[in-house]
Design goal:
This protein has 98 residues and is α+β, with helices and mostly antiparallel strands. It has one domain: Aminopeptidase. The protein has a four-stranded antiparallel beta sheet. Helix 1 crosses helix 2. 7% of the residues are buried. The model has no long low-confidence stretch (mean pLDDT 79).
Length: 98
């Protein structure tokens, strides 16, 4: 793990909750993957739901492994989106020290 404390994996305010991905989020995750980059949208549509679920599970494993990752954003327990930090930040930070 990095030089920082792991990020919280469950945060709540009066209106929003940031928390771990759930298997029930698969449809929302699939929609996000498909809209993210028009150049890769066609290729990502060919990904099986099993591959998408594997990716979603990988998001959770990343938090355990690196202390950072992506969390879902929910309002009134409805999926609204996601936010967080990704591994690229770790690589860039290490590169900046050299």
């Amino acid at each position: 793990m990095g030089e920082w404390a792991p990020m919280a994996s469950d945060l709540q305010t009066e209106r929003l909750r940031l928390g771990p991905w759930r298997e029930a989020d698969l449809d929302d995750y699939e929609a996000l993957v498909h809209e993210r980059d028009p150049r890769t949208a066609a290729a990502s549509r060919d990904r099986s739901r099993e591959a998408l679920l594997t990716s979603l599970v990988g998001q959770q494993a990343s938090i355990v492994e690196t202390g950072i990752g992506l969390l879902t954003v929910r309002m009134a327990d409805a999926f609204t989106g996601y936010c967080g930090l990704v591994k690229a930040l770790i690589a860039r930070r290490a590169r900046d020290r050299v």
